[in-house]
From TrEMBL:
Record bears the keyword Repressor: no
Signal peptide stretch: 1-20
Protein name per UniProt: TraB/GumN family protein
Keywords for the protein's UniProt record, in alphabetical order: Signal
CDD domains, sorted: Tiki (cd14789)
UniProt xrefs under InterPro entries: TraB/PrgY/GumN_fam, YbaP-like
Amino acid sequence: MKRIFLLFTLTALCITNFNAQQLENSTLWKIEGNGLDKPSYLFGTIHITCDATLDDDVKKALDETSLVVLELDMDDPNMQAEMMKSMYMSDNKTIQDLVSPEDFASIDSLFIKNMGMSVKMLQNVKPFFLTASLYPKLLDCPMQSFESELIKVAKAQNEEVMGLESIDDQMQIFEDIPYEVQIKDLVRSAKDNLAYDKATFTKLLEMYKSEDINAMIDMMNDENYTSIAQYQDKLLDNRNKNWIPIIADYAKKQPTFFGVGAAHLAGENGVVNLLRSAGYNVTAVLN
């Protein structure tokens, strides 16, 4: 359950402006050059899916590396406790403080229908986390996770799992995005009982299956997702820039397999372009 809740949060962060040169359709990239003794690999994941089977080229990349680094150290036993501290709104704010009575009734109905409980029991939880708790309802199948599969491989190979950022770094994003903006997405989802979200997520899964990381970036500009469209700098760009020296440090010490949400790969401020700008040779591993 701890890891599942964390996956919801990661998905919220990955659901950039589209002005950079388009990249090849690939979710796996090889990192070489710039003083590296051996290559490392960058893999774009989707945090919840129906099929998280690892392709042979991904398995080969895992075999050629000796460390797995994800966005967060998801194997940290203290992570759930740290996350729980950041779930709640500050200043004793509640959901009812942010919406009209009519919109609150819609949200409450949404939770009763889909979660079997009233949102009144979660009144002081940040809207982003409430939205994330509904993500499994977007799937028409049992939920799987690429992160979980990568962790399984790491354990089987007696390798450590590390993170590119701390839970505090990630949770600060949900303080930086105003609650009033976060709640707009939840109200919209409540109005049609997740119909638009389900259709959009189906498209996203199709894009991921075809490894079209450029199209995934384009979806980030959907104005129906206010918090994502307006705060891409906090959700993607700033984090990508912060990751580059950390990726470089890991890769110099040992060949490393990096797994991040696929929405972080493409775009002008995507990880691939930023690594190239830092002097690395980053090439698509094509099937």
